[in-house]
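Memo to structure team: turn this sequence into structure tokens by end of day. - J.P.
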Amino acid sequence: MNGRILDLHLCVSGRPLPEYHHNGGTYLEGRSASDYAIRLRNRTARRIEVVLTVDGLDVITGEEGSALAQGYVLDAYQTTDIKGFSRGREKAAAFRFAGKEMSYRAQMGKGSGGVGVIGAAVYEERAPVRFNPYPLYPPYPPYVSPPWILRWQSLGPITCGSVTPNGTMRSSASVTVSTQAVAGMPTAQTQMNVQNLGTEYGSEVEFHTGTTAFGRATENPAETLVLYYDDAVGLAERGVVVGQVRPTAPSAFPADGGAGAPPPPGWSG
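Reply from structure team:
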């Protein structure tokens, strides 16, 4: 799924899963026992923060998802894979497709009614304010403040790492903390009439993290992305035809291709 600020995809073995568009939603086919990663790509030239939920649960804390909770901070144009539910600064529990009764949500006693949805709330970074000693002249252009003058949040942020081509990890993304919920993010109440798959708390994987400071430009997300997933049977019951991706290819000149001006009624030539 490509947004204005963020690209969001689910990847199995490093390859993005096909996406299917149906009734205004974006759907993916998952297969039981397959591990997946959530791939994030910052489309902008500035840092952004991304708050992620899987099955309505925050991927960092495991609590009910809030759009103003902790989020991963991506550098300009950065791509990173979120491998699983956080287990601290070095490890994560892999995201793994499983029957909904085996989902992390169900196993934690939160029921299975909210499974099958992945959400991302995106925040742009607040531009630093610079003092202009010459008010008659235009202000200085924006710049990236050194870390020692950025405002740190009350709870320490956490970072995630991305996989480089040689398989090593590099520190790349970080999180900050907020306190409110925002309408529009998928929650535990997001339910579907048909749902076979959920996301299991999988095997422990290496997932290095760190810290950074981040100031949000706005109180509410600048963009919200939502993906729905299920197995082929569940998608078919919704009317989603798996294996038939129909990319839209709009014409730049839709009126072209005709055979000239049509004749009026009764015209014989």
